[in-house]
Amino acid sequence: MPGAEIAGARTEWRAHPAPDAPPAILLHCSLAHSGAWAGVLQHLAGRLSMLAPDLPGHGGTGLVEDTTFLAQSLAILDALIDHQTGPVHLIGHSFGGVLAVRAARAWPERVASLTLIEPVLMALLEDADDPRFAAENTLRTRFTAHLEAGEMAEAAEAFLALCGMDARLDHLDPAQRDYIVERIHLIGAADEAIFAAGPGQVTPADLAALPMKMLLIGGAETPASITAVLDRIAAARPEAPRLTVAGAGHMAPISHPTPVAEAILAFLDEEAASAEARRAIPG
Question: Most CB atoms within 10 A, among 62, 122, 189, 282?
Answer without folding.
Answer: 122
